[in-house]
Specification:
Pfam families: HMGL-like (PF00682). Its EC number is 4.1.3.4. It is an enzyme of class 4 (lyase). There is one protein chain. By secondary structure, the chain is an alpha/beta fold. Helix content is 44%, strand content 14%. Helix 9 links the parallel strand 7 and strand 8. The protein binds 3-hydroxy-3-methylglutaryl-coenzyme A and magnesium ion (MG). Magnesium ion binds next to loops.
Amino acid sequence: MNQPALPTKVKIVEVGPRDGLQNEKEALSADVKVELVERLARAGFVNVEAAAFVSPKWVPQMATSAEVLARIARQPGTIYSALVPNMQGFEAALAGGADEVVVFGAASEAFSQKNINCSIAESIARFEPVARAAKEHGLRLRGSISTAFGCPYQGEVPLDAVGDVVARMRDLGCDEIDIADTIGVSTARKTQAVMLRAAREFPIAQLAGHFHDTYGQALANIYAAMEVGVAIFHSSVAGLGGCPYAKGATGNVATEDVLYLMQGLGIETGVDLDQVVDAGLFISQQLGRKSISRAGNAIAAKRAG
Ligand code: HMG
Ligand code: MG
């Protein structure tokens, strides 16, 4: 039987310190966030999303971003990323020494309004000076597209709406573009269709899959995306997270589960699963609850004998 070739190597972008923690009710101290980022970088991620320079009134948990970026002991070769919705955010990310800035838009108008208080076209206009400044300062530029597989307000999102925003992000000069399932509604074939539509506008090797696991489909979606050539995925240690502007959306797929899958498939990630399990146990303890990573919990139980 002919099976589609899977990549031999994938890049996992750890988004727990940002996407994961932004949705927590309890304020975590900068100390805890610094330790989490440091543990994750030591585990081998080449890219850790560590901060978001957004309005603290909108997302209070990210108010410590400047302190976190300033205090982390940097791991050589690790890219520390920060979300920036506008020039105010960019200036803060630059001052904090972010290696990569992430402009974040949406494929649905309704979500764009709820999340960043402007239309898709207005968001791209806000991103233009950010993109120019990132290039001037030699920072990597990533674009993130929310609701690419479905929107909590609008429902279906047409494939061409995704293609259109991918093209606009490409024209901004993005090095990488994230196709995000904000509310975790996609299933395998849909994932392939969206990724292939996005790949008509931008090289598939630079597209990333950002899957929330709300309906338990994230691992299947990652596998399906790999079948069509995607080799960059986002995940969150202990499955932390959600989005404050997508009611009911749960966290990103758990990093431990993704690493376990990749190990089983013989796909290289460069990340040490055991150290990620430890980081997951650490942050779960800080939050006072059990990790929702199935693989993380299974490995911890096995260790305990
Ligand atoms: P706005 O109210 O339209 O903006 O918000 P404004 O320019 O009129 O400014 C209003 C106030 O915000 C002012 O303060 C500004 O200084 C301040 P005031 O005078 O009222 O005291 N402000 C800022 N403060 C800090 N940093 C900034 C900044 N910009 C303005 N950069 C804005 C527009 C985009 C700022 C606001 O809507 C916002 O911050 N939204 C937060 C959105 C967010 O962080 N969402 C979660 C992350 S995205 C996500 O999770 C999805 C993703 O994971 C992919 C997926 O899963 O879909 C990436
Ligand atoms: Mg997200």
